[in-house]
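Forum: Protein Structure Q&A
Topic: Joint prediction for protein chains with partners

I've read a bunch of threads here and the consensus seems to be that you should model interacting components together rather than docking separate models afterwards. I'd like to see that in practice. Below is the full input, 870 residues plus whatever partners are listed. Could one of the regulars post the assembled result?
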Amino acid sequence: MLKYVLQRMGHLIPVLFGMSIIVFSIIHAIPGDPAEVILGQRADPEAIKTLRAQLGLDQPLHVQYFHFLERILQGDLGTSMVTKQPIVEEMVPYLAATAELAIFSMIIAVIFGVNLGILSAWRRNTWLDNGAMALALVGVSMPIFWLGLVEQWLFSVKLDWLPVLGRADVRDTITPITHFYLIDTLLAGNTGQFWSVLKHIILPGIALATIPTAIIARMTRASMLEVLKHEYIRTARAKGLHDFFVVYKHALKNAFAPVLTVIGLQLGTLLGGAVLTETIFGWPGVGLYLFNAIGARDYAVIQSGILVLATIYIVVNLIVDLLYAYFDPRIQYK
Amino acid sequence: MRKTASKWTAAALAFGLLLAGCSSGGNTPSGAAGEKADTGKPKDFVMGIAADAVTLDPSLQSDLVSITITSEIYETLVRYKAGSSELESDLATSWEASPDGLSWTFHLAKDVKFHDGTPFNADAFIFNFERWWDEKNPYHKGDFSPFQADFGGFKDSETCVVKDVQKIDDDTVQINLKQPFSPLLAILSQTEYGIASPEAIKKHNGDILKTPVGTGAFKFVSWTPGDKIVLEKNQDYRQPGMPKLDKLIFQVIKDNTARLNALRAGQIDLMDGLSPSDAASVKSDAKLQLYETPSNNVGYLAMNNLKPPFDNPKVRQAINMAIDKQALIDAYYYGLAEPAVTVLPSKNWAFHTDLNDYEVNVEKAKELLKEAGYPNGFSTELWAMPVARPYMPQPEQIATVLQADLKKIGIDAKIVTMDWATYTQKMKNGEHTMGLMGWAPGTWDPSNLLYTLLHSSNAKPPALNLSFYKNPQVDTLLENALKETDQTKAAELYKQAQQIIHDDAPMVPLVHTKPVLAGASYVKDFVPSPVGTPQF
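Posted by a regular:
Agreed with the consensus. Here's the joint model:
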């Protein structure tokens, strides 16, 4: 098991290495010069030259790349070219904001997606099944930004139930401990703020959960249909077990491995930050952070940021792979 | 003169804010328009902004969001009157120029304290000035490109118009110039010349990016990048009863519709960057009000005067005659713009009122093209920016309309677009033939538009004069106007320049837009301004 984990972690190295080369090449291929963006359009050429030298941009590309690699290998993500702040420090709150939203959305997606899928498989070819799958199709195809704006209009502007956007009331001061506001407000024992934060996360949470819910529902349905055909299910039913137990206890556990893969992939994607959802809901997440960095041609932030996100993605998928063994004892890691 | 790419890129917020005198309904927006119930709660005011600030050091900044926010924290020697192009006193109670225009004396306000309790006086001003203009000053950290561009260079540069700065007494300073320089007051009114506490500058070793300490109505509390910036009332503000708000919060909400939703739901009190297409619905909503900012920008079609056939004035005049500006305004600006005759908007004091714009005349335009040797027209490119600008809300649609107008006189223009950073860079290099662009200056000084966009010194890459227009006669007029301290005489020179430019037709000035803001109806006494100065 440990050997397997180490082996998989070992695979990370070539992946990240390849990734770093691709990212580096792409961002240097797009026109636009960070020095010019920083100094502005009237800056004189002399000043731009000086800043380029300070930022190391005057060196040949391969030299710049090796400097970057050297730093990364020492565990140093570098400092932002624009704000001059260490990237690690700067990125943590954004990553936490994204992670909080992603996890919240995944919880919604798993609860609804799995149950919807089970329901469909269980009541196959009924109006329930057809209805659920039609809903899933709508979910996959719906433009998120549109859904988000409609949610805001309905639940905030018209019904006045939930706040339109933001992670918390801007007038509240939340002392960051973990940077997960739901946890931080609980730790501080401030239930008023906790409810406020919870209310803030619901609308973006639903918007972001739509696609994963639909995908999980479809996958659960397909996988359940497969499993429900098996002999042992018939046996369980023959024993006189209630359908509910047959489905949730016997069938679901065996049907869950492929669903888990999908959940892992979706979670990995959500953790990468969803620029559109974050934009509409004023959610200061990592998607926006990187998007801004690209606009400012902040090479340091783009490079390091993408590497961090790639690492997270790979690690999440590794964890999913390890969880397989729990659901399917036939799988062993050697 | 206003510069910097970010000004260009961030010009989405072409206004400064005058929030100090503004009052709001506190935490709970009341339904009744106008009067609000006094809840006894602190009066917090939340403004939704489309982009985050870049820096809170006023002398380094160039984007309008940063300027908007720091203008509440810092004050300058002089400032523009609310919603007007007239200057009034701020930290300087009065000032006078010597008859030769070479030395300017400023009498400073007495008993003014910075937020950290240290006094504002002549020493404090000189400390700030030295930091701005002396590259060897230990606190000169950063590019200080606003100073460099506004004054023609730093202390050691020959082109810098400032000779020296002297303390006369504790409350009087004198700025001595190498040559008369008429935009001086307008330049000093910009938030970039906001006076920071010398003690704070020393304490942070010149790096006051995130620790602004000024004399303004609001004190800095916190900045969560990408999320919000919080300011609180300066209890010791020198103007009694001001500011009326206890807290001022700027919340970053990038999406226009989401920002408007937040305003409608009462989550924010005021928002910038309202889409012109939403203006009508805001106007008709009893719970909201619409603010129109006086126009101080220009959206234009640049023609590269270095490239044939645009090197021929007749071709350029023909194009000026082909474009129907009013139709463009009706279709895409929802009445929130005026057709441009020159690069100066009609509110500018140097605007040439007697100048008649080219009339839309297809026949005459075709005639001119024939005279220029293009009886069958020609093919060219028309560049359109990929993002909405305050002066160009829907660039690609606008380009399509222009394309149709050009087609009528036989010019076949292919619309080309690319990402914004690439777009500005390529245009600055002069790679375009025709391209849409605009400019939103930081002061009302005419040089900000005329000199920046049309003087030959700005026509070499990276250029701001994107038409690459070079006319020695215009250059001389603009240079003389810069030296003329008498505003009436300067206006005369600018008018002559506008006439020549109009006849040469180096570009097509399209529109001057009025950026709009929306606020809740209970917000009182808020006056939007197109330049970044704090006012009351």
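The radius of gyration of chain A is 24 Å.
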